[in-house]
Amino acid sequence: TETVRLSENSRKLLVVEDEPHVRELLVMMLETLGYEVASCESAQEAEARTDLGSFTVLIADLILPGKGGDELLRDLTGRQPELRGILMTGWPAISGELDSFPVLEK
Fold this sequence. Notes:
The chain has three helices and six strands. The chain is of the alpha/beta class.
């Protein structure tokens, strides 16, 4: 597993989470830590953003309506190899690593 270290110039994160309370809490916590954070409620909304290239890290829920977070990360890192990804899940049996992306338990 690779450790992602962010410089002061690359602290822009995109959070993709369909549960509003979880999304809002995560955004608030990351902003408190000094990150610039944008959020979306679906993979489709994330892919429609015109500023995708400005994000350093994508944090996505594994289970999303429509396209899952793992598929979103594979698609976006295929187009932007420098983008790093972290998956989240409420299913503890899946936590660890999936397709070389770290998976955090919510």
